[in-house]
Amino acid sequence: MMLKYVLAACVSATMAQDCTLLMHHVGSCILGQRLADLNEMTSCSAYICNNLLDPYAIAHGSDMTKKIAGSGYGCVIEDWDGMYVGDVICMNDPNPPPPANCWKLVNGTGSCPAGMQPADLATLTRCQDKVCSDMLGSYGEAHGNDTAWKLLGSGFGCEISPWHGEEVSTVICMPGEAPPSPPPSPPTPPSPTLPALCDGVRVRSRFCPTGEEPVSREVVSQCSQMICDSMGFHNTTRGLENNFKLMGNAFGCRLEPWVNASIDLITCSPSQGL
Question: Quick one: average pLDDT of 125-137?
Answer without folding.
Answer: 82
